[in-house]
Amino acid sequence: MVRMGYVRMAVVCILVAGWTGHADEDEGVAISMFAVQASMEGRETKQFDRALAPVREALADLEEYDTFHLVRRQQGLARFDDETRILINERYTLIITPLGEDTRGRIRLRARIEEQIRREDSIVKRIALDVTSNVAPGRPLKLCGLRLDEGELVVVVAASRHSGNPTRPTSRPQPPRVTFR
Amino acid sequence: MNTRRQEYDIERMFDDETGADRADTSTSMLSGDAAAYQRDLERIRQGARTVVRREQISDAQFPAFMAGIQEGIEAPERSYRGVWAFVSLASAALIVAISTFAVIRGGTPDATATVVEEVTTEIEGATVHWETSEDGGATVWVDLAEGDLW
């Protein structure tokens, strides 16, 4: 009987130790988003807005475009299993939902681009792109192909784990929800 | 062909050593390879008997002779335990070093690349696909249909 008690305790410890999901309300995912209007204009060398310097290397891989203009840039903290809406422009909204973290340190992320248009007397929405991925630190996710004015929309998303204060008290008020504006 | 054990038995019989497990065998009953081996032993014996000059140990040489024998008996048997211990330690250290190098170096770029699990779209007629970027990231493409009027 005593041995079974130790076995049960060991199983519980193993299960708790093996859980790789988020366990801290104060922790989340640091999100960096660049929304870009990209187009092909027949240039000899690619042209980037100065504000796109942090993601220039990521955009340079896209051979379909040679001109890149910044539409929207946003950084912030998104909590696990919470939807974080990032307005790109009047037509597109990026919705980020961190789902967890794998053993290699990659953030499992759901990224959706919601598209809306205004019809005669209503607003119609659809999910233009719904992506679930494991995003590695320093390895951005790029969403390409949707129409944007004279070019196409390219959304560059980078994610990394954000840890809370390790000396936090065990009980505290619920932190405010972080939203992108 | 005789085995080494068979040759040993033949040599003992040839030297007139008797043993209970060999009472049923004598050199006269040998045949084939065994008999040929016995004839070789006989030839060697005859040769030894006809040596013109025989080396002998004189009385003055005998003490040195016995001292050499005693020295050989008392000489410690060469042990290779130290060599094996060193080889084992060196192998273990090499394995630890390789493992540590592999851990510190980290995974291959493919192991830490961004990977897409699933991609869908609600746009009718559109197709979606994804590919790994040169920088280890992932690029998702949505190809719109020509008739999409949004």
Describe the protein.
- The complex is a heterodimer of chains A (181) and B (150).
- Helices cover 12% and strands 47% of the residues of chain A.
- Chain A has 2 helices and 9 strands.
- In chain A, the strands form 2 sheets. Chain A has a 5-stranded mixed beta sheet. Chain A has a 4-stranded antiparallel beta sheet with strand order 4-5-6-7, with no helix packed on it.
- The model of chain A is unreliable at 17-23 and 165-181 (pLDDT under 50).
- The model of chain B is unreliable at 18-24 (pLDDT under 50).
- Chain B contains 4 helices and 3 strands, in the order ααααβββ.
- The longest helix of chain B is centred in the middle third of the chain and has 25 residues, at 81-105.
- Chain B is α+β, with helices and mostly antiparallel strands and 150 residues long.
What brief labels describe this structure?
heterodimer; A: 181 residues; mainly beta; four-stranded antiparallel β-sheet; B: 150 residues; alpha+beta; two-stranded antiparallel sheet; 4 helices; 44% helix; elongated
- Give the overall silhouette of chain B: elongated
Structural class of chain A: mainly beta
Taken in chain order, the helices and strands of chain A follow as HEEHEEEEEEE
Which residues of chain A sit in consecutive blocks of at least 5 with pLDDT less than 50? 17-23, 165-181
Largest interface in this structure: A-B, 31 and 29 residues
